[in-house]
Give the backbone structure.
Amino acid sequence: MAKVGLFFDTQTGKTADIAEQIQSALGGDSVVELNDINDVELDKLSEYECLIVGSPTWNVGELPDGWGGVVDDLSGLELAGKKIAYFGVGDQIGYADNFLDAMGILEKELAEAGAETVVNWSTDGYEFEASEAQRGDVFVGLGLDEDNQPEKTEERIAAWSEQVKTAFSL
Ligand SMILES: Cc1cc2nc3c(=O)[nH]c(=O)nc-3n(C[C@H](O)[C@H](O)[C@H](O)COP(=O)(O)O)c2cc1C
C-alpha cells in the first residue's frame, strides 16, 4: 500500500483532474493512491500513514454528494497520529461568500477525529468575501479556482506539493 491516500469527491470532474495532477507531482501511484469517496468505505482513511483530502464546494457552501453522505461519520474515525493535507476547488467570483467552504467543513470534522492538519496556504492572490476554509490569513489547505484562475493551478500545485513532501517526509 502506498504511504499516502488521497480521498476526493467531484461532481463535474475538475477535482478528479486535480487529484491526478497532485498524484503525479508527489511521485505517482507508488506514493499516492487515489480514492473517490463515492467508491470506497470510509474506514479506508485509517489505513494510510498520511492523507490528502480534496473537495469542490457545491450548492452555495455545501459539500458535494459523496462527502455529504459521510460527513457525520468523519469525526468518529480513529485518526490520531495521521497527518492530513487538504485541497479545495471553488469559484471565488461566483460564490465569493462561500469560497472553498467544503475544505473548511471537512478539516473541522477530521481534526475532531484526531488528525493533524499540515500545510496551510496563504489567501494572497485570491479575491473573496468569506470562507469556512479561512483561518486568519491562511486557508487550511491549497485553494484552487478552475473557473477563474486555471492558469495558476499548475504552479500552485507545484509549490504546495513541495511543502507536502516535507510534511509527509516523502
Ligand atoms: C450551483 C453551483 C454552486 C456552487 N457553489 C460553490 C460555493 O458555494 N463555493 C465555491 O467556492 N464554489 C462553488 N461552486 C463552484 C464549484 O465548486 C467549481 O466549479 C468546482 O471547480 C467544481 O468542481 P468539480 O468539477 O470537481 O465538481 C459552485 C458551482 C455551481 C455550479
